Amino acid sequence: MGVLSVHNGVICLEDDINSSAFPGEITVLRSLSRRSYHGHCRLLLERRGTTILRQVNDAFCDDGYGRELLSSDLYVNIWSNIDLNEGEVRHERAGPSNPATAIGLLHFDSVYALRYYCPNILSKWAARPRHWPPPEAVQRVVSLGAILTPVGFKGSEYQHVEWRVCFNDGEMELISNLNDTQTKVYVLLKMIKNDVLHPRKKEVSSYTLKNIVLWMAENNPQASFHKKSILQWLHEALVALRVALITLELPYYMIPERNLMATSGLDREQQRTWISTITDMLNEGPKMILRLPKIRKALIAHPEPFRWYSGRRIELELLQLVHLHRVAIRMVENVEVDHTDAILQALTRRRNEVMTDVCVRMRMEGSQVINAGAIFLRIMM
């Protein structure tokens, strides 16, 4: 369980934002992004508030030029020294968080963040040409702003005083705007990560996969994400993941200049294995999801597939019966069959939809038969 605490007694501002509008009790910090990796910054004290939290005040350090920087390392370490409740056990720091376990059962990660006012970053994101999210959702994301979490870019000479820009509330808004198909693709990707790839640490995380889905949603017409295209988009997402593993590059959705794979810690052997595994899955086509235990159990071990197939067969028989009846009436009346007849077209369209469902499911279950006409005749026998 993650616990995010945002301290409202401090405001962090982009370089050119005026601080005079904030009341005197608020501590104002100025972000310095120059010489820091994309999506990270250092925090220079501009004005100490009349009331300031001890954990903030004790985390300042000198930058070598007589100015005060807020150290992310000191900030995390100070919070890690607060007294725990009875039955709680603290664990080693993990990035910006202080992990702990309560009563031996409940694990939680506490992150202490600061509010970040960065209209330039958000307006740049909002101005991108896109298919998604809708304009009203874009405005909500902008209004939700950003936070800074106390973790620097791995390997940076300023790592101990750097902070990472995050958009937790905005990203929750984005996820809530995904449609059903996009959400299911995201869930399937996470299942593949856990059940197929088995990352040892967080070389590929759920956050990585979320960004792939967000980019797909933004760059493609929303009408193309429908219930019959789930496997198609899962295929596209796996292609994107394979490219990210090959190139070790994946732009962060909110700040594309930040590469999410830059600090993945992926070793060569694991990289080759995952690329090979994903390639095999792509070559397997729709039946690749049978690699997922929960999906496989649902498709094979559960009686539902038989009920599903029986329902499709009954519907096809009814459609065929209505179709033949309408054609027969025309023949009795010595009227030529009109193939532009709206009812005949609707019957044919629905029959094709049902057959598509049947064919896709057969492929998922490992069938090599791809001739829809032959399958239809077999069903109607």
From TrEMBL:
InterPro entries: Mab-21_HhH/H2TH-like (IPR046906), MAB21L/cGLR (IPR024810). It comes from the Eukaryota. Transmembrane segments: none annotated. Gene3D superfamilies: 1.10.1410.40. Residues 183-273 form the Mab-21-like HhH/H2TH-like domain. Pfam families: Mab-21_C. This is Mab-21-like HhH/H2TH-like domain-containing protein. It comes from Dreissena polymorpha. The lineage of its organism: Eukaryota, Metazoa, Spiralia, Lophotrochozoa, Mollusca.
